[in-house]
Input
Amino acid sequence: MIAIWVKVRVKRDDLDRFLHAIEVDALGSERDEPGCHRFNVLQDASDELVYYFYEVYEDEAALDAHRAAPHYAVWAAAADTLDGDIEITRTSTVFPSDPAYWSKD
Output
């Protein structure tokens, strides 16, 4: 499993457009991608313009499929809503260790 933490800062005037785009991507990812096990969007408690994405993918092929999906293109088209660089941290899942936990069945 590949787990990714993404941190972004959003331009205040573009917040609604950003929220629409990331919702389309997150919901499409979990709904349409068998290899995407989780896509959560979180807002920082002390800075309303900072958001985190927690994404879990089966493997590199699933991550590649995510980046090729139509809903990802919606997100990519909204990249100009961001204020600064995207911070990405790649990790591996440890717990829950049972692969069935991550299954969508």
